[in-house]
Amino acid sequence: MASRHARTARNAPCQMTGTSNGYWPLTVTQDLGVSATIGRRQWTTKECRHEERVGPRLEHLGHEIMCNDYEQHIAWAEYCRMMAELALKIPAHQTELDLPQADDIRINDPAPIMRAAGDAIELASMTFGFPPSGPKGGPVFNFRSEGRRFTDSKRCLVPASAFFEFTGTKYPKAKHRFTLNGSPFLAIAGLWREAAGNKPPSFTMLTTDPGPDVAPYHNRQVVVLQPENWRAWLDLSRPEIELLRPLPVGSLSVETVRPERA
């Protein structure tokens, strides 16, 4: 099915139309007044496309692209210690080479995800963003969680030392770094897909309404899971509605690592 486009003025909320049956990829086009680079792809000046899976109830996504950049500086020793504390097994063949470091992981970059492997949780390298659904579509890097059931989905965790959100109207925008309080790293709820044809295995991040820590910066947020819920998401041993929701106030710390250009 072809995607539909909605053009908006700068800083205006997105207006979207869609079908009344099922879920399909929708592309939102906005005049941001800046050029944008997403992953390795340069979008046209003043236009930036953001694709999410949405359902029959189509709500506006806001005027900014969501989390498309995160950091991976998890030390292998910290990863092993955290997994041991949670009584989560690591396959014997895995090493620190399966958890490569990166200042910024963006759309179309390879990155490790965590997925169930029998009674253990393994790290697997995949591409950030599901492949486009059509020739004019973009990669699906965020996926709405509300009203969805994921029983038959391939669920994963996206390990990160931090994720970034951006604010402002001038480029480069202000960059804000979010971390999970009381934990050496965080994990974002995600979905993954097998390789198909010449397309490598890939993953996307689930999103939800913003919690109080993220709301001042964005009108959506990725689903950050508390460590005690990691296995519950992979096994889906608890209902989605209990897991895929924003964390309480004070759960996330934020620092501005780059101010908006004056």
Approximately how much beta-strand content do the residues carry? 35-45%
- Count the DSSP helices: 3
In CATH's first tier, which class of the largest domain applies? Alpha Beta
Q: End-to-end distance, in Å?
A: 43 Å
By CATH's scheme, which homologous superfamily of the largest domain applies? SOS response associated peptidase-like
Q: Name the shape in a single word.
A: globular
Helix content: under 10%
Content-based structural category: mainly beta
CATH topology of the largest domain: hypothetical protein yedk fold
* Biggest β-sheet strands, sense, barrel: 11 strands, mixed
The residue ranges in which pLDDT falls below 50 over 5 or more consecutive positions are 1-64
Per CATH, which architecture of the largest domain? Alpha-Beta Complex
What would you report as the Rg, rounded to the nearest angstrom?
18 Å
Whole-number total of structural domains: 2
Mean pLDDT: 80
The run of helices and strands is: EEEEEEHEEEEEEEEEEEHHE
Number of strands: 18
List the helices and strands and how they pair.
Layout: E1 7-8, E2 24-31, E3 37-38, E4 41-42, E5 47-54, E6 69-72, H1 76-85, E7 102-106, E8 110-117, E9 120-128, E10 142-144, E11 155-160, E12 162-167, E13 174-180, E14 186-193, E15 202-208, E16 221-222, E17 224-225, H2 230-235, H3 240-243, E18 252-258
Parallel strand pairs: 1-2, 5-10, 9-15, 10-15
Antiparallel strand pairs: 2-5, 3-4, 6-7, 6-12, 8-9, 11-14, 12-13, 13-18, 14-15, 14-17, 15-16
